Amino acid sequence: MEVIFTKGDGRYGKLCCVRQDASRTETQMPEQGIAPHDMIHYVVEKTLAIAGAFYGQLKAGANISFTLEHNQLSRQIADKTQVWQTESMVEALQ
Predict the structure, then answer these.
(1) Which long-range contacts link 11-14 to residues 24+ away (Cβ below 8 Å)?
(2) Measuring CA to CA, how many Å separate 39 from each of 9, 46, 62, 67, 68?
(3) How far is it, in rounded angstroms, from Cα 52 to Cα 94?
(4) 19, 48, 53, 59: which has the highest count of C-beta atoms within 10 A?
(5) Nearest to 90 by CA among 40, 45, 48, 49
(6) What is the reported pLDDT for 82?
(7) C-alpha separations of 53 from 24, 28, 41, 57, 77 in Å
(8) Would the pLDDT of 58 be above 70?
């Protein structure tokens, strides 16, 4: 999956994820601190090969929204332990 971060006007940037099948999901992303929350998520999940958290679910077909809009495959790969562990690491790094 291709993950594209676009710098915005200082308040909001954009996050766009393009899957292998060319489907995509995107959202406005608040620009905060040194790096946006979702960018830190990407670094943590990619570096630690975490497959069941935010980006793994997006790759499996979930759509970005406040609570993620899941499909059947993204529900199957979602791992609540990985989600909470990842969120804790992201918050600590922020």
Answers:
(1) none
(2) 17, 11, 18, 18, 17
(3) 21
(4) 53
(5) 40
(6) 93
(7) 18, 19, 9, 6, 8
(8) yes
